[in-house]
Amino acid sequence: MLTRPKTVFAVLAIMLGAMAAGYVAWTRQSANAVPQGFVVANGRIEAQEIDVAAKYGGRIVEVTIQEGDDVAAGAVIARLDSDELNAAIARAEAQLDAARQEQQAAAHSVTERESQLTFTGQELERTKFLSERGYASGELLDKRRSDRQAAEAAHNLAMSQLRRSEHAARAADAEIQRLRAQLDQTVLKAPRQARVLYRLALPGEVVAAGGKVATLVDLADMRMTVFLAGPDAGAVAIGSEARIVLDSMPTRPIPARASFVSPTAQFTPKTVETQDERTKLVFRVKAIVTDARGAPLKSGMPGVAYFRLDEHKEWPAWLK
Prior knowledge:
The protein is of the alpha+beta class. It is built from five helices and 13 strands. It has three domains: 36-47 and 219-319, Efflux pump adaptor protein, beta barrel domain (Elongation Factor Tu (Ef-tu), domain 3, Beta Barrel), CATH 2.40.30; 52-82 and 186-214, CATH 2.40.50.100; 83-184. Residues 20-31 have low confidence and may be disordered.
């Protein structure tokens, strides 16, 4: 059994320990308290997701990525079977060659018909001259006119064949360009530098037009969406400085800026914990990361975003 002095000493020690712990907690809370001219709200890191999909349907022959891979802009994600397209291009090229040969032959024919048309025109004019002076019969004049009309008809036919061959050549060339563009679409590439979030198809599978092959996440386009009350949201200017502090990295503030403030109010989303908070009207605000400082950011990481309402206010030391 403890004597009275020992009991008093033990109680005092416990009280002093509690007071010390309380002081440390109060000091930390005070140090990280939101100063005047700033506002804070909680949210989660979001990243821009990009679906890589096939423009045309086909069988996948190769998928070059795995989930978690970092890919550069233009890197090959997957390839579709292109045998039929290559055959169609060869057929269209043969049609183009035939059309060009026909065009060349038609051009020669037009040259010949133009020469014949010129000759029959000259013969007609000479016969008219002689007929007017009684040196040529009317029968000969009629024949010259008939020859001139026949030459003109032949010339018109040759011109028509030339135009038709030119149209056929242009159509074949356009078909080749279309098929080659479609052939390019059989190689699916990353539109920008990103990380593979999901691999959605495997070699041997057949995907329809618009079928997704992979989902990428752009780690250079990270943001946090929060919800602020009307007065606070109205004081946040587009482009104003912000800081994001993640739960997993509380001592590593990430520079950001306000990129969007919703012009219309909404009820607080259901992800907010308390029912009282969910019944309030708030405005959606986005903070986009401007300098990750090498932080390993991942989509879905929870944290808070601090917005500076007064640009003349200095950021607290723990948020710089």
